[in-house]
Amino acid sequence: MAGKSEIRIARVATDEGAAVRRPRPAARALGFVLAGLVALLVLVGGGAQAASRKAEAVGSTANGFARLVLTFPEEIETEVRQTNGILIIRFKQPLDIAVDHLPIAMRGYISVARRDPDGAAIRLALSRKVTIHTMAAGERLFVDLLPEGWTGLPPGLPQEVIDELARRAREAERRARQQERQRRAREALPIRVRVATLPTVTRYTFELREPVAVSTERRGEILNVVFDEPLRFDLADAKAALPPTVAAIDAETDEDSATVRFVFVGKVDVRSFRDEEGFVVDVSAAGAREGAAQAPDLAAPEDLGALVMPAVAKRLAPGADYAPRPRANPKPAEVRPSDPPPAAPPRQKAEAPQPEPASPEPAPAPPQPSAAAPASPPGDAAPAPPPPPAPARAPA
Asked: Does pLDDT of 293 surpass 90?
């Protein structure tokens, strides 16, 4: 009896486990309901997304044709085709667009207009034979319905639309140039700023690799040098050798330009210009250039005379009448009785005495009695006076 009881208990337990593992019909139905709710939520979400992307349709008739203008929230690809008198405009993305008013706005060209349930297209029933001409302009699509027998060129875009497109094209071009400049600036090495220090001026040379528009703006003690490119500069040399006139120099780069800023000390003169090496900025103390221009050029030999005393300059000048000073305490000349008396010396110039050339000695006269006077020199000259005493010493 005990063995039969155990077998029965084991069989009951096995049957209960199988019942737990086997899915019940109620649970299976609940799963189907949940799956349907999820699918419904997805559809509702997609429809809400399509409904949130609204578009606008405006129709008009003028100048012998009808025009339909569709305005989208953004640029959307469209497909326009005509089939059996039906104009179909398909959108790449579903849109919420109202077209019920188009038959009234485009009377004589459209009889019926409707939107597809999924919002992917609109369909317009044409009431006459027309030629379709489309033009895309940004977020707008222009659809012109030209009647049969239309001659000449198709209508163009309104002027305000053309101006808007031109403005956008300029902005797009500017952004493209800006991105290209930024790319080149990231890839290019920093531009070295060379420094040359002269006695009166400090020169900063920016070695530009290509033509760049440069402008300067000074406000008091600050000078901004603005480059129309996002350049990078190496200011190591400039910061290592700051002159007394410059307190600081730094650079900053933004999206489309670069600025080098000088901070000066006191009053300074600044001059900037272009040369074959790039852009140059000269900084000097106020008035230093004028003083340098007035100072004489010591290296010019023709200006040496302006730096010495007038008397010395007169003597050093070419062709000057200059004679050396006589030696102090000259030896008195020996006077012979037979020599004629020396002529009175001419008046000396104030600067220095002018020596007279020595006259040749005359031939000795034949011996005369002692009481006789010395013979006079030949010619009609007057008799010479007795020999004068020894000349006094010349002043030193």
From this structure: no
